[in-house]
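Morning, I've got a small favour to ask if you have a moment. It would help a lot if you went through both lines with me. I owe you a coffee for this, so here goes:
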Amino acid sequence: MEEKQFLENFSSIFDEVEANQLTMETKFKNIGEWSSLSALGLLAVMDEEYGVELNYNDINNSETVRDIFDIIKNK
């Protein structure tokens, strides 16, 4: 799994955030657009793109994009 593609997929859950605005160290919950709907979008994108079902604890216990990346990579 490539980080650049992961950032593109991650950014797709937001309307106003482009992949080049994110890094693996971005604290995604601090993005102004982050909401419960974004969380649902994240669940859907990760399942669709990587076949991994995240759960509430996965998101709740994560701070950075890299945290989600590592969860996906290890499942």
